[in-house]
Specification:
alpha/beta; Glutamine Phosphoribosylpyrophosphate, subunit 1, domain 1; Rossmann fold; 6-stranded antiparallel sheet; about 20% strand; binds fructose -6-phosphate
Amino acid sequence: MCGIVGYVGQRPAQGVVVEGLRRLEYRGYDSAGIALVADGELVTRKRAGKLANLEKAIADDPLPESTTAVGHTRWATHGAPNDVNAHPHLGHAGRVALVHNGIIENFHALRAALESDGHQLLSETDTETVAHLLELQVASGVDLTTAMQRVCQRLDGAFTLVAVDAHDPDRVVAARRNSPLVVGLGEGENFLGSDVAAFIEHTREALELGQDQVVTISREGVEVTGFDGTPAAAKRFHVDWDLSAAEKDGHDWFMRKEIFEQPRAVADSLLGRHSRTGQLQLDEMRLSDQELRDIDKIIIIACGTSFYAGMVAKYAIEHWCRVPVEVELASEFRYRDPILDYSTLVVAISQSGETADTLQAIRHARSQRSKVLAICNTNGSTIPRESDAVIYTHAGPEIGVASTKGFLTQLVACYLLALYLAQVKGTRFGDEIAEVMEQLEGMPAHIERVLADAESVYALARSHVDTRSVLFLGRHAGYPVALEGALKLKELAYLHAEGFAAGELKHGPIALVEDGMPVLCVVPPEGRDQLHDKMVSGIQEVRARGARTICLAEEGDTSIEPYADDLVRLPRVPVLLQPLVAVVPLQLFACELASAMGHDVDQPRNLAKSVTVE
Ligand code: F6R
């Protein structure tokens, strides 16, 4: 998400910053901008669209020479991707320029306070609010470093901020909390970047900043403090990756990088969802409480991985809200003459926001007077634009063709929607909703733990390079996980892979089981509605017919041990939230197996990231 570059040194800063932005293009973006300091003034250029648009703007109206600048490529979160919302943003008198990556959760309150003091904000972004706050500080006489420390103490959320002050051209000041920022160390010059790709052609010496730190770079050196101003240490490292590895944060594939980004992506998707009174709030929910109370049926439409997220949503919404939910493949939906009216809510789930099947389905639903709510990762894309409401997932750009963090953040958005409906319809008490929110907020740490065990999943995957056919079994919320695990293996490893509801096996699919066939089993948490025990019976049935079982079961579940040829442990989480941890080993398995088979993991054959034809 968003690319950030900062520079202070001896060379023309424009070239260093624009080149740095080009190196960060792989992160995905929808606008770009630069601000540099010249003769005590800030000069900015910013444009919606690709870097070429910014370069044209600079060619049409050249920038003055300067050796201090910041630049940004923006992936829209608050506000549409246009020239005004593009970064950098300026303070009220144009003295401070700021670029930002992340989400300031409490910006509504901060913005309202500024506006009541007479500040006029030009954009819809959370960033501009912070630019105004920084400028108020430097105007009161403190330096930009102190200003940054003070302002950061007032911010909630996850952010990387990089600022320059027109009256102090020899420093660039940055801060980070839960969002990436690295410092590049040069001779008589220093750099800031979202990752090392931003400056790798100038220096390979870098500093990794800690949480809640402010860093000031100048030609002479680098100073790091905490938000409270006390000196702090940052970890020095030497970059020995080539540029292509640097873009992937040292991983071999974008997909693998995106799998490891999931704890952050899930945390980002949960940010800013509480109001000051503790109520759940969805900013982009443009349907009134009354409209939501009138809903008596929900139809979820989506394709592929997004469809499986919809299947999990059905379990959550029906359980928490007691509203009937149908889940339908978008490509089938409008051709079966579905029964729709104003009391049906259609939920369209799409990572890209451009999938033609889903788009046509929502157009049909709206023509029948149904309200459409989109769950989407791409701000400004067609599906949210044509919907009545939208919940954005904050996964950041997904580059690997196979969806990973897109899926996990869709699940988060589905849980949020279910809880929000429960709040509005009064089907759950406030403390029950708060308890689930707390469990959701604990999920990034659980996902981290699953990822920490990646090596053992990789070893398992590599032992299957000669496999031709794999089955996946699950029950309840684990059933869509089994389907998703099978889809990942089909699209990446080109293997025959099928997912089944474990209870359905005996009605036919068990005939497929042969001696030695790997069967991956998603075991539900113990102790709920016999679900776990029924799954164990299913596992016994396939094992009795010669299958090699690989069981994904929660820590402490010893009852599964006699029936598992291999065991992958999952953290103990509630059954409805288990997909958030259970799908991760399946993603790792598919990625590693495909890689070991010599396939291009990021660009599987015959597939496109965004399917814009029906
Ligand atoms: C699978 C995958 C696809 C997409 C599907 C829908 O890894 O990525 O199955 O999920 O094409 O795409 P979106 O969510 O963009 O509508």
